């Protein structure tokens, strides 16, 4: 029997990583990003958020309202109480983002978001671990904590690669390979990673996928001027779309997805399944994390599988996606 999550559950992303890795920089990029989501941000301390003054609308108790519609809450006591309060707000968030302390173990935080009381209300979308390419081997006495932060993450963002030589980047890759059997890693400068990889952008409307990405287009647009980058997204990421009107057998789908190349960072979209042909099945893959949920009925819409995969250039093709999603026995 196949168990489905809830497609209406609010997705949660946890940002982890050692002190100074760039979590706050990444958080600010998301807060100011053009994603169209109503985001609730949970942080350990307001002091860890470097929000420009002109973005702040007002502060009430432990809640900071931002000009772009985001809401920041400080975590002072019980995380569960904070999450429940956020979900009870008049304008329910469409996304929850938590910036963990640089010295915290993400496993206990992740367990909170899998609490039974949150079933069908929230789902853990991903755990992103930022690693400072320049300082990853510094503070050897904290190496066990750094490894645990990486081990519990779905994706590693190797940040500040512009500050080191390529041989150092390769050293980090070798170090990770010697300790982890499978991992997903994205290189970044100033925590600049496309929102399509970080968040469940466009997860609700299948018809948006056509507008998002034409078939097999390389390099998702980030909307940033070229001179603002030290790197080119188009050279580092590729996007592939798969569409099919053939029903997919969901039995074993999760194991088949695990067989995707490590350079595939994200897969999202809808599946037309053999087991439940009347409902759309939402598929979300972020790094190592896989979420399969039942959405509403197809109704008057044509049942079809429509998926977008984002990865390194050449990491995934329509043929690869077809073998994974359409040929599952």
TrEMBL record:
<dbReference type="InterPro" id="IPR011629">
    <property type="entry name" value="CobW-like_C"/>
</dbReference>
<feature type="domain" description="CobW C-terminal">
    <location>
        <begin position="237"/>
        <end position="329"/>
    </location>
</feature>
<comment type="function">
    <text>Zinc chaperone that directly transfers zinc cofactor to target proteins, thereby activating them. Zinc is transferred from the CXCC motif in the GTPase domain to the zinc binding site in target proteins in a process requiring GTP hydrolysis.</text>
</comment>
<dbReference type="InterPro" id="IPR027417">
    <property type="entry name" value="P-loop_NTPase"/>
</dbReference>
<dbReference type="Pfam" id="PF07683">
    <property type="entry name" value="CobW_C"/>
</dbReference>
<dbReference type="Pfam" id="PF02492">
    <property type="entry name" value="cobW"/>
</dbReference>
<dbReference type="InterPro" id="IPR003495">
    <property type="entry name" value="CobW/HypB/UreG_nucleotide-bd"/>
</dbReference>
<dbReference type="GO" id="GO:0000166">
    <property type="term" value="F:nucleotide binding"/>
</dbReference>
<comment type="similarity">
    <text>Belongs to the SIMIBI class G3E GTPase family. ZNG1 subfamily.</text>
</comment>
<keyword id="KW-0143">Chaperone</keyword>
<dbReference type="GO" id="GO:0016787">
    <property type="term" value="F:hydrolase activity"/>
</dbReference>
<protein>
    <submittedName>
        <fullName>GTPase, G3E family</fullName>
    </submittedName>
</protein>
<keyword id="KW-0547">Nucleotide-binding</keyword>
<dbReference type="InterPro" id="IPR051316">
    <property type="entry name" value="Zinc-reg_GTPase_activator"/>
</dbReference>
<keyword id="KW-0378">Hydrolase</keyword>
<dbReference type="InterPro" id="IPR036627">
    <property type="entry name" value="CobW-likC_sf"/>
</dbReference>
């Amino acid at each position: 029997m196949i168990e489905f999550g809830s497609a209406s559950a609010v997705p949660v992303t946890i940002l982890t990583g050692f002190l100074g890795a760039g979590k706050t920089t990444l958080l600010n990029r998301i807060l100011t990003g053009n994603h169209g989501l109503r985001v609730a941000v949970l942080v350990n301390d307001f002091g860890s958020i470097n929000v420009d003054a002109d973005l702040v609308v007002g502060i009430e108790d432990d809640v900071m309202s931002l000009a772009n519609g985001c809401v920041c809450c400080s975590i002072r006591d019980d995380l569960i109480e904070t999450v429940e309060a956020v979900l009870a707000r008049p304008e329910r968030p469409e996304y929850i983002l938590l910036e963990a302390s640089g010295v915290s173990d993400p496993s206990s935080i992740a367990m909170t978001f899998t609490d039974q009381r949150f079933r069908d209300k929230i789902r853990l979308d991903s755990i992103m671990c930022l690693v400072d390419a320049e300082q990853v081997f510094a503070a050897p006495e904290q190496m066990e904590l750094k490894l645990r932060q990486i081990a519990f993450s779905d994706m590693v963002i190797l940040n500040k690669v512009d500050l080191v030589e390529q041989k150092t980047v390769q050293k980090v890759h070798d170090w990770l390979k010697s300790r982890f059997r499978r991992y997903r890693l994205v290189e970044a400068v100033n925590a600049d990673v496309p929102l399509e990889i970080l968040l469940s952008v466009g997860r609700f409307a299948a018809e948006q996928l056509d507008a998002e990405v034409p078939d097999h287009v390389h390099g998702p647009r980030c909307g940033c001027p070229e001179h603002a980058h030290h790197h080119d997204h188009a050279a580092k990421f590729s996007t592939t779309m798969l569409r099919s009107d053939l029903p997919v057998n969901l039995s074993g789908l999760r194991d088949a997805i695990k067989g995707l190349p490590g350079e595939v960072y994200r897969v999202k979209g809808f599946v037309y399944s053999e087991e439940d042909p009347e409902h759309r099945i939402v598929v979300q893959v972020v790094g190592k994390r896989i979420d399969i949920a039942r959405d509403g009925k197809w109704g008057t819409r044509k049942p079809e599988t429509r998926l977008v995969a984002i990865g390194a250039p050449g990491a995934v093709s329509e043929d690869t996606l077809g073998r994974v999603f359409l040929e599952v026995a």
